[in-house]
Design goal:
The chain has a single domain (about 10-215), classed as Rossmann fold. Helices cover about 30% and strands about 30% of the residues. The chain is built from 7 helices and 9 strands; from the N terminus they run ββααβαβααββαβαββ. The strands form 2 sheets. The protein has a 7-stranded mixed β-sheet with strand order 5-4-3-6-7-9-8, with helices on both faces. Helix 2 (about 50-60) runs parallel beside helix 3 (about 80-85).
């Protein structure tokens, strides 16, 4: 469901969101993503946070992605998960059901077929719901770009992060700090994880935070 209505008279800074495609050169490839603001709103366009996080994974992240189990939350058009897969990770790329058609098409178009079965799987995930379908502690890295913006979702998002993260897992979140509620989410995250800012893209005003679990997972 679109959270922001489509309008033909977008501000100039938002005009790129109304293009039907967005092209990037990342992970040694041209990544061409379809966008569809008119049909699906915010879930169907590439936001700056996704671009910054993809660039961070490619050039700055002090982690080896090859062969590692990774999951992206709220993937939207899939840029971050696609780049992680192209860098060698085994990525589960997730979003809510309405976003999956466009997301799946973008993954098929940009991840070579010989890599796709093991490196890029698209899956439905609504935070806090149906988590038993995903292995507890089953991921070394959790990715999220611009997913911290609705305060009502914070408890479910935190529960999802807690479920997915292995003991030594890291969470990479790229976001703007727009409102006081965004800072409140970071405070909630710090109650469970050690959190540090690892990158700031000043022109885009995007922060990248790395969070690591404070203590080993409790035995169930």
């Amino acid at each position: 469901m679109a959270l922001v209505p489509y309008t033909e008279n977008a501000l100039p800074a938002l005009a790129k969101l109304h293009n039907s495609t967005a092209t990037f050169h990342l992970a040694g490839r041209e990544v061409l993503l379809n966008q569809d603001w008119r049909r699906s709103g915010v879930a169907a366009v590439v936001w700056d946070a996704a671009v910054v996080l993809a660039l961070y994974l490619e050039a700055l992240a002090p982690v080896e992605l090859r062969g590692r189990p990774v999951i992206e939350l709220g993937a939207g058009t899939g840029l971050v998960g696609i780049v992680a897969a192209l860098l060698g990770a085994r990525v589960t790329i997730t979003d809510r059901a309405p976003a999956l058609e466009l997301l799946s098409a973008n993954v098929r178009a940009n991840v070579p077929a010989d890599l796709r079965p093991g490196s890029a799987a698209v899956s439905e995930l609504s935070w806090g719901s149906g988590l038993e379908r995903y292995p507890a502690g089953g991921f070394d890295l959790v990715l999220g770009a611009d997913i911290v913006y609705l305060e009502d979702t914070f408890p479910a998002l935190l529960a999802t992060l807690d479920h997915l993260c292995a003991d030594a897992a890291a969470v990479l979140l790229a976001c703007k700090i727009r409102y006081e509620r965004d800072a409140r989410f970071l405070a909630l995250l710090r109650a469970r994880f050690s959190v540090e800012e690892v990158h700031f893209d000043r022109p885009r005003d995007i922060h990248v935070y790395r969070a690591v679990r404070r203590a080993p997972r409790a035995e169930l």
